[in-house]
Amino acid sequence: MNMIVAVDNNLAIGYKNQLLCSISEDKKYFKKLTDGKAVIMGRKTYESIGKSLQNRKNYVLTRDTNFERDFIFTYTDKNKLLEEVNILHRSEDIFVIGGAEIYKLFFNDCDMFYITKIDKVFKADSYFPALDLQLISESENFYDELNDLNYRFCVYKR
Q: Where are the domains of the chain?
């Protein structure tokens, strides 16, 4: 399993159930990596997106036993979700896409981490777990003019 996330210099990932910023190239990177794959997210992340992600199997983990939406698979039990995902997507990549509680809950289940590092500090209320991982690749620094910030794509493994 994999995780994909964008973090600032303090490992912040969001504020008030929204991303810290929107970087066009990061969205393209996310789509390229997750297209055609299974994605696991929490209810708040699903609601912040507002719909299921196209061309992906969408799995939502929630405490709300009444939460149901079209085109998603809803679970209230992490182990049942993992069992289902591993049966249906055994030879495929599976991506955990957030939010903070879901990242913490699935952190030890993942082997690969695709992390966009944003060279900035934002006001935030949710954070990614501390990185005690091995860096295996890192892109050059890119500049996003719209947000006036630098960022790079990093890949880590456990």
A: 2-157
